[in-house]
Design goal:
mainly alpha, single chain
Length: 521
């Protein structure tokens, strides 16, 4: 089971984490890499590598006890050297498949040739660098190559300086403009993402106006005229975040679709910027989910599953982990969309195992989302004890993220205790949850009405009076269902379905499926 508590410092050692992240092939490659230039120091490095590889948790004392030739005062330097050697061996393995590494290497070769006084060869190497950078939209490398070439031309006449000087100057100007646009758009996308991570969706008109004013002010005037890959990517990403925060899910769909179309138009970029492609697929799936577009969701999910089974999705640990994270999220959303809640619960052990296997690659935000979705699955099938277990993981985790999700976790936690009849706890919980949500300024009409009902339920002794109160609450919540900002409450839990199940004496999952069928009809 994935643990909420921060791991001990013994397992947070950077070198230890790096070694534990290596595959068998990478470990084999490291041994060969070190063996090619073996010395007394390298033998100690290899010994230290083997010791750490066999450990479950990092422990300095155990290293010194088992590594008899390693002295305590040598250990920090040996660890630093081993860290560098591992990174160097990984660089060698990846230089053929990573364009950025290739471009770095070509710039280094150009520098070596220049230092040897071979100016023409250096310029030719820079030309190859520029062509490769241009092909894959690596503008910063393109600019570095041009700046280096400009330096060579200003110090050594290698060709007709008159025409080349003007060409270089024009190209540098254009690239600087493009890089400035990429910088502004990527800043905007990052700032919007940060807003969502901490606050979630816009809570009211004030939030909507604030995020809209910020977006309009920060969006460059000429952004839509940009033709470059990364300018378009960050533009579409910015619109996606703006639309998602504002709960304009149709706009979110349009721009996430443009995001994926960008990769479809330039398929070579999918291999180079795979994490952005994965994030784009996630956003497109999320858009279909929020719009309750069953056919579109299923079509995109099938495409994403095909990608997940491809070699592209296994290119490195980061891509493997990110693909798995977003595939799990999509599968869970798919179960909610279909009303197959038991199917969702069936994949929870597999998800837990993944979270245990990739703790470093799974950010806290995703873990919070997973826990909340799992809690909702258990709530719908009536397993309130399990619901509370997963919600406690969120509530007791001191993490300053997603204030909206933190609030709804506490509200669902309160309702689960109400379902279990834990009246001794409810009075305390009502006050605690109300204070928390009021402090976060996250209390909507829906939550206010639910609080009123649960408070009042203490005084209702007969089943008929409770049923009447439930009916009144249902009527009030139905009036809120079409409200744009109140809809946020129903996004997290189907309160209408919960109340209908209470009144009809039916399992919640049956009521939700019935409501889904009516909406499809």
């Amino acid at each position: 089971m994935n643990k909420l508590n921060t791991p001990s410092n013994r397992s947070n050692d950077a070198l230890f984490q790096l070694i534990k992240s290596l595959s068998k092939a990478e470990k084999r490659n490291f041994k060969l890499f070190v063996g090619r230039n073996s010395s007394a120091g390298d033998l100690k490095i290899a010994q230290l590598f083997d010791l750490l590889d066999k450990m479950t948790d990092y422990d300095d004392a155990l290293v010194l006890r088992k590594g008899s030739s390693i002295k305590k005062e040598q250990l920090p330097n040996l660890k630093a050297n081993l860290y560098r050697q591992i990174l160097a061996s990984l660089r060698v393995m990846r230089e053929e498949v990573n364009v950025e590494i290739q471009l770095h290497e070509q710039l280094e070769y150009a520098r070596i040739l220049y230092d040897k006084g071979l100016y023409q060869q250096s310029v030719r190497m820079l030309e190859r660098t520029r062509e490769l950078a241009k092909q894959y939209h690596q503008n910063s490398f393109w600019l570095q190559a041009l700046v280096f070439e400009k330096k060579i031309e200003s110090l050594h006449i290698t060709r007709s300086i008159r025409h080349r000087a003007e060409d270089i100057a024009q190209e540098v100007r254009r690239l600087n403009e493009r890089l400035a646009m990429v910088g502004r758009l990527s800043n905007l996308a990052l700032q919007l993402y940060s807003w969502y991570i901490y606050y979630g969706h816009a809570r009211d008109e004030k939030d909507t106006d604030a995020i809209g004013s910020f977006f309009t002010a920060q969006l460059p005037v000429a952004a839509h005229e940009s033709e470059g890959f990364f300018e378009k990517l960050y533009l579409f990403q910015s619109y996606c975040w703006y639309a998602f925060i504002s709960q304009d899910f149709l706009m979110h769909y349009r721009y996430s679709n443009k995001w994926i179309a960008l990769f479809d138009d330039q398929p070579q970029m999918r291999r180079i910027e795979t994490p952005y492609y994965i994030k784009g697929m996630h956003n497109l799936l999320l858009a279909h989910f929020m719009l309750r577009n069953h056919v579109g969701f299923r079509t995109v999910l099938e495409r994403f599953e095909q990608f997940a089974a491809s070699d592209e999705a296994a290119i490195n640990d980061n891509v493997r982990a990110q693909t798995a994270i977003y595939l799990f999220l999509a599968r869970l959303n798919g179960f909610f969309l279909e009303g197959n809640f038991k199917g969702g619960i069936a994949i929870v052990p597999e998800l837990e195992e993944f979270l245990d296997t990739y703790p470093l690659q799974t950010d806290r935000h995703r873990v919070l989302v997973f826990y909340y979705k799992i809690a909702c699955l258990y709530f719908v099938v009536g397993d309130f004890e399990k619901t509370i277990d997963y919600l406690n993981r969120i509530i007791h985790w001191k993490v300053d993220l997603r204030s909206d999700l933190q609030c709804y976790a506490r509200l669902l936690h309160l309702i689960a205790h109400y379902e279990l009849g834990n009246t001794a706890l409810l009075e305390h919980l009502i006050k605690s949850v109300y204070r928390f949500m009021a402090k976060m300024e996250n209390l909507s009409i829906v939550e206010e009405e639910i609080f009123k009902f649960i408070r009042k339920s203490f005084q209702l002794t007969s089943a008929s009076r409770i049923k009447t109160a439930l009916g009144i609450l249902l009527d009030r919540l139905k009036r809120c269902e079409g409200n744009r900002f109140e809809s946020r409450s129903f996004m997290y839990l189907d309160f209408i379905g919960w109340l209908e199940s209470k009144l009809a004496g039916m399992p919640l999952e049956d009521v939700i499926r019935s409501r889904m069928a009516r909406k499809k009809a």
